[in-house]
Amino acid sequence: MKNLHRWLAVCFVLGALSVPAWAGGNANFVLGGRALDEDFWSPVDSQAVVGVTVDFGREGWPVHLETGIQGSADDDDLFDVGLVKLTGSVGELSFGVNKTWKPKGNVRPFLGGGLASVTARLEAETPLGDVDDEDTSGGVYVHGGVFWRLGERFNIGLDGRILVGTDITLFGAEGDADYAQFGLVLGWGWPAGK
Questions:
Q1: What's 65's domain CATH number?
Q2: How many domains, in total, are found in the chain?
Q3: Are 128 and 137 in contact (CB under 8 A)?
Q4: Which end of the chain, C or N, has fewer beta carbons within 10 A?
């Protein structure tokens, strides 16, 4: 699984660095919320998420390639007296394909999906010391939504995303880092144009 994580990291870096030189596409940041399995992740199952997805391709390609990086986290006091603070987080690298339609006007519906590598982590701060555990797993993601092109380059819209197929073990408990998330899209596209 660690090889998948490294491969996706290389794809993200190479894709992000080569995009402006030969392709058109979009770089969209996502700010939103992520819901993980309540039975496994409670009380840190509702995590704030921030990420970026870059899609790129040549004119005439039926789909673009896309690569992304995202992270989410939540923390909670396990007891009312605040003796134990629990923090849960999920980091993700992804690589897949994206189709963004360009009907007349500024509306851009999109759909994408592919492979992801996630690293899930739980940390507990206690009076006796801090403990943590993490695990990495592969999964499959699908996302879609719509954004509006404002002016020649600026994108604003909404994105929904799900991830399935992960399998992780934290502190001896078996679970997953599968999630559903929803967020606001802010970004830009190139080449310039409506």
A1: 2.40.160.20
A2: 1
A3: no
A4: C
Contact 189, 155 (CB under 8 A): yes
Residue 36 near residue 177, CB atoms below 8 Å? yes
Query: Mean pLDDT throughout 106-135?
Result: 94
Do the beta carbons of residue 86 and residue 74 sit within 8 Å?
Answer: no
Amino acid at 78: L
Q: In the structure encoding, which two tokens stand for residue 194, read together? A: 């409506």
Question: What are the tens digits of pLDDT across the range 132-147?
Answer: 999 999 999 999 999 9
User: Partners of 122 in the beta sheet?
Assistant: 88, 133
pLDDT at residue 152, as a whole number? 85
pLDDT at 126: 86
Q: Is the pLDDT of residue 21 over 70?
A: no
**What pTM did the predictor assign?**
0.84
Ranges assigned E (strand) in the chain: 24-36, 46-57, 64-77, 85-100, 107-126, 129-150, 154-164, 168-170, 173-175, 179-190
CA nearest to 185, candidates 92, 116, 100, 128: 100
